[in-house]
Amino acid sequence: GDLIQRVLNYVNMNYMNDIGIGQIASDMDVTPNYLSSLFHKKMGKTFTKFLTYIRMVKAKELLLTNPGLKVQEVAEQVGYYSTRHFTKLFLDHFDCYPSELHQKSATKQL
Q1: What is 70-83 written as a DSSP string?
Q2: Nearest Cα residue to 92 out of 64, 58, 53
Q3: From CA 34, how far away is CA 2, in angstroms rounded?
Q4: Residue whose C-alpha is closest to residue 50's, from 36, 67, 62
Q5: Against a cut of 0.85, is the pTM above it?
C-alpha cells in the first residue's frame, strides 16, 4: 500500500510537470506495467485519469482563490499548455467552464 501512497505524494507534488507512470515506476524500481495495474486496482481509476482529476481539482482551487488569473494561466499552472484541451477536461469534470467558476468566485466573495 506504501507504494501507491508514494505515487500519490509524487503526483501531489509534481502534477504541474509532465509526469507519467513510466518515470515514476523507474524512480520506485518497479515496472510501469506492474505499477499501473496496481494503481488501477487500488485507486479504481487509471493513473492518467487520476492525474487529470488531481489537476482539475487544483485548477478549481486556483480559479476560486484567484479570480484575477486568466484561464490560460490556470491551465499552465496545472500542466496544460492547450487552453482548449484544459477547458474541455474541466467541463467534463465539473459540468461548468473554468470562466463560469471565475464569475461565481468574483460575485461571491470567499
Answers
A1: -HHHHHHHTT-S-H
A2: 53
A3: 14
A4: 36
A5: yes
For residues 102 and 67, is the Cβ–Cβ distance under 8 A?
A: yes
pLDDT at 67: 83
The answer to whether 67 touches 104, Cβ cutoff 8 Å, is no
d(CA 27, CA 71): 33
- The sign of the CA dihedral 79, 82, 85, 89 is positive
Read off the C-alpha cell for 8: 500519490
Q: Which grid coordinates are listed for 4?
A: 501507491
